[in-house]
Structure formats: C-alpha cells, structure tokens
Specification:
The protein is α/β, with parallel strands linked by helices and about 475 residues long. It is about 45% helix and about 10% strand. It has 3 domains: about 90 residues, Phosphorylase Kinase, domain 1; about 190 residues, Orthogonal Bundle (Transferase(Phosphotransferase), domain 1); about 150 residues, Alpha Horseshoe (Serine Threonine Protein Phosphatase 5, Tetratricopeptide repeat). One of its GO terms (molecular function) is protein serine/threonine kinase activity.
Length: about 475
C-alpha cells in the first residue's frame, strides 16, 4: 500500500481522554471520573477483539479490554452485557461506591461510563497477568512457595480493607481475580466488588466453585466470600483449579501430600503448608457460621513471613521495575487529540493555522517557478487554500488536484489538505491515499500518520488505525525532543 506501514502487535495504543490525576503524587491512582463512550472506544480501538484481556475469552458474559487513555495511562475496561443494569442511576451509584476505595492491595476502580445501553467500568491496568496464568498456565517457572504465601496474605488484606469500608461482598473470587502489578505484587481486581448485573444472580460462571448456600438460596454473604477465598487457598496449595467439592474430600482425609503442587518439588515448609491447609479447611466448611471471618484470615496468614525482604518481581522472575518515579506522559498534542476523537473540524482548524510551514525543504524550485505555467499552478493552490479556509471542500479538492496533477511542485501539505477534503466528503479510500502520499514526500511527518489513522478508522480498520495513531504520537514526541516543535 505505497508508503503505508502498519505495525501490528500493539492493540491498545489508541488514546482517549482521561481524568486528571489525584494530588498525591506520581504513580498514584487518578481521581474517580465519568468517561464518555467515545473516549473508551478510542482507548480500546473501538473495543477490538485484539484488545480483549479477560481470560474467559469472548464467551464470557462481561469482557475486559486493555486500553490506553489520552494521557497514555493503561487501563482495564470492563464491558457489561447489554441491559445487565437497566437503570443507569443504579449502575452509576454502585460504580461510585466502589470508586471511593483506594488501597495498594487493590487494582482500583478509576471511572465508569453509562451511555445508552452501555455500562462500562475503568480500572488500573495490571501488566503481569493473573494468578490463574501463573499457577495453571505458566511457561518459564512456577510460583515459588513464598510467593504463594504472599498472594494469600495480600488478598486477605484487600478483603479486610474492603470489609472495613463497608464493601464486604466480593463476587466470584477466584484465581482470575488476582492480578499482578508492575512490581509483581498481587492485587485484587476491583471488578469483583460490582455485581455482574442489577440482581446479582450470576455469582460465578462455574457452579462448581460457588458456595453451597448460594446454590440453596441464591444469596451472597460475607461468609460466601470466605468460602471462595478457601478455593483460592486450595489453588495455591495444589497448583490446580480444583472444584471445592473434590478438594473437601481430600481435606477430610487430611491428605496434604496428595494436595500439594508437584511442581514445587518439595520446596516448601510443611509447617506453613499445614497452616494454609487448615485455614482452607475452615473456609470451606459447609455451614457459613463455621467459617472464619476476614480478620481471622489476615491474622492467620500474617504469621508465615517467608522471604519478606525479597521483592515480588524477583520471586516472579520479572524484570526490575524502573526505580525512578514514573514521569507522567505528555498529553497528546492538539492534532493528536483531534485525530483520536475523529474531530474533522478541529483537524481543519489546525491545518489552516499551520499553513505550509512543514513544506520547508521539500521543494527546490528552479527558474521554472517564474514561468507562466508555474504561476498558474501556484494560483490554483492559492485558490484551493482560500476554498479550504472557507470549508468549500469540493472547490478546494479540485484546485489541489490541479496542482498535484501537473506535478511541477511536490507539497506534503497539499496532500494532507486534500486528504481532509476527502474525509469531509466521505471518501476515506481517497483520503488514505493522499495521506500516504504525504508520508512518501515527508517520511517522518506526524500529520501524514495522523491523517492515515483517521482514514483507516473511517474504513473500519480500527487495529491499523490504532497502530498508525501510536506511530504518529511517537514521531511527534521525537520531533519535540529534537526541538522542532509540533
């Protein structure tokens, strides 16, 4: 496709708007905010299937997408099934309640969207996968015993914090709800603090993992959460996703040797494993009143402090995170913002204001410039510029075409302007061609890449549009770093 270079493999670099950061320093969770549907579509490449990160896959009732906001912050966006929450006010109230929580053991909720039938939650993105991935589907190394203890303790602390803040109910607690942040520390997903629907009937996608009382009466209680925590403890012990009904038989027989994960190769403390084993047994009691409370979990798991001085990323075999505080990324330039929002009017205003300053150095004119033909061509461009300024895009397109077809001068700006004319006239194919020609003339020109991203999006090629937008942003940042401005 000429000079068009699509670099696949980065499905979520399509920025949208984002809320301002909380005042408590770099790296802190941003303030809770309401997002527009346009913003979240932009952030997730129009909810592209390539942006899906929930391990339930597309068959799951509520998909989770990885996205990137306008300020470059990565987020997880949960998209509920249609009309799971018919009342938008009720959904907003629930989301705001969860959004008040802020804790280092949580992947915190930072916003929501409630437009039309759409109901979406926006949370901090955790880049190092789920507990399920590291326990059941690992490739390089299994989780060592000390890390498994840390997971159990941190998640108990997260549940204790939620309970202390009046959020005792956590829906469908399992190994897929435990996420690992950039430091390799385990965190509990905030999504489980919201019901999957207004009535909350879908506790789990797998009834084998639901508390017995839920099967009896369909109710979730704080004791139900403790039961589910017991299933996570079994997962940590065994390295397998064992249905509680089977694990209870193992527990009754006190066969801890059979239960332990063989991939640990005996590298664990029998004493510590017995503590976890006994706690799991208590959590999985059939009668809710016989289970421990959340504070009991924290107290019991606070005792084994194996390798407390070793960072999580070391135990996880992850690269060392950057020691310096994360520098907040620059927000998008006006052109980047306009293109991310597909705002053709704003793009037009920018191109009019920029005029031809980016054409410097792309033409070396000879004495032919003074011929009558050259004067006619420059006059055609001038008439095109006047029509473009006045939004007479049909006339502008005709004048620019005359300028381009004669071919005595080559101007990336004219191609960019004609590209936008095509976009206003609903001709995205032609718009893409012009933007690509602008790139051929001026290979590192961000505007050419920005316009290609808009045209690709208009053509429904959302993944390529996201990649092209990302490349435009990088080129513009490079220009700014070299002192060339935007």
């Amino acid at each position: 496709m000429g000079c068009f270079q699509s670099k696949l493999g980065n499905p979520t670099s399509f920025p949208g708007k984002s809320p301002k950061h909380a005042p408590n320093g770099a790296g802190a969770s941003p303030e809770f905010a309401e997002f527009s549907l346009v913003e979240l579509k932009a952030a997730t490449a129009n909810f592209s299937s390539e942006s899906v990160v929930s391990e339930g896959g597309e068959k799951a009732p509520n998909l989770v997408y990885k996205g990137r906001l306008q300020n470059r912050r990565l987020v997880a966006v949960k998209k509920f099934s249609k009309l799971a929450w018919p009342d938008p006010k009720q959904f907003a109230e629930e989301a705001k309640g969860v959004g008040k929580l802020r804790h280092k053991r949580l992947a915190n909720l930072i916003g929501y969207c409630c437009e039309g039938d759409e109901r979406l939650l926006v949370a901090e993105f955790m880049p190092n996968d789920t507990l399920a991935k590291h326990l059941f589907h690992w490739e390089n190394q299994t989780l060592e015993w000390a890390m498994r203890l840390r997971v159990a303790r941190y998640i108990a602390e997260a549940l204790d914090y939620c309970s202390s803040e009046g959020r005792e109910l956590y829906h469908d607690l399992n190994a897929y709800r435990v996420l690992f942040d950039e430091n390799g520390d385990p965190r509990l997903s905030c999504f489980g603090l919201m019901k999957n629907s207004r009535d909350g009937k879908s506790y789990s996608t797998n009834l084998a993992y639901t508390p017995p009382e839920y099967l009896r009466n369909g109710r979730v209680t704080p004791a139900s959460v403790v039961f589910s925590f017991g299933t996570v403890l079994l997962d940590l012990l065994s390295g397998k996703h064992i249905p509680p009904s089977h694990a209870l038989d193992m527990i009754r027989g006190k066969n801890i040797t059979l239960l332990m994960d063989s991939h640990l190769e005996g590298n664990f403390s029998n004493e510590e494993a017995t503590v976890v084993f006994n706690l799991a047994s208590q959590c999985l009691q059939y009668e809710p009143r016989e289970r421990p409370n959340v504070k009991d979990l924290v107290t019991t798991l606070g005792q084994p402090r194996n390798k407390d001085d070793v960072p999580s990323y070391v135990m996880m075999g992850l690269p060392k995170p950057d020691d310096a505080p994360a520098t907040p990324q620059q927000p998008l330039s006006p052109m980047g913002d306009a293109c991310s929002r597909m705002d053709l009017t704003a793009i037009h205003e920018i191109l009019v204001a920029t005029h031809y300053k980016d054409d410097e150095g792309t033409n070396e004119l000879s004495f032919q410039e003074w011929t009558q033909q050259m004067r006619d061509i420059l006059d055609a461009r001038k008439r095109g510029d006047l029509a473009f300024r006045d939004k007479d895009f049909k006339t502008a397109l005709d004048c620019y075409s005359l300028f381009i077809e004669v071919g005595t001068m080559v101007s990336p700006t004219v191609h960019a302007r004609r590209s936008l004319c095509h976009l206003f006239m609903e001709q995205p194919d032609a718009a893409l061609g012009d933007a690509m020609q602008a790139q051929c003339v001026y290979p590192d020109w961000p505007t050419a890449f920005y316009l290609q991203s808009v045209a690709l999006s208009k053509l429904g090629m959302h993944q390529d549009a996201a990649d092209m937008l990302s490349e435009a942003i990088q080129l513009e940042e490079k220009r700014q770093g070299n002192g060339k401005g935007s």
